[in-house]
Design a protein that fits this description.
- This protein has 5 helices and no strands.
- By secondary structure, the protein is mainly alpha-helical.
- The protein folds into 2 domains: 55 residues, no CATH class; 37 residues.
């Protein structure tokens, strides 16, 4: 990042990165930590600020929604979907029992039993 260009924008983006440094881990923070180990804190802040500006530019240009989903939340939602699918399978098989469905109920790797 150079000193050419809009000073207020540069200052604002760098302050946004500094505010993110001690927050919850995100892909940008992982990038910052990697750059900090490689090049030092000052260059890491500038590199992360540039990456943040790049992400914002693409989001605004393509009119996209940016969201970051934590692994913990993703896994919890996945488990809930699996549990719902298992309950649905068990309910459907209980409504129309056959020898095959009874075997399926025993073999289904559900989270809920």
């Amino acid at each position: 990042m150079t000193k050419h260009g809009r000073k207020r924008l540069r200052t604002t983006v760098i302050q946004a990165v500094l505010a993110m440094v001690n927050r919850r881990p995100t892909p940008l923070m992982e990038f910052y930590q990697q750059k900090q180990r490689e090049q030092g804190a000052g260059k890491a802040i500038c590199a992360t600020a540039r990456k943040l500006l790049t992400v914002l530019f693409v989001v605004f240009k393509k009119e996209l929604d940016y969201w970051y989903l934590e692994d913990r939340l993703y896994n919890r939602k996945l488990r809930a979907l699996d549990a719902a699918a298992c309950v649905l399978t068990l309910h459907r098989n209980a409504m129309h029992p056959t020898a095959k469905s009874a075997a399926l109920i025993r073999e289904t790797p559900c989270l809920i039993r």
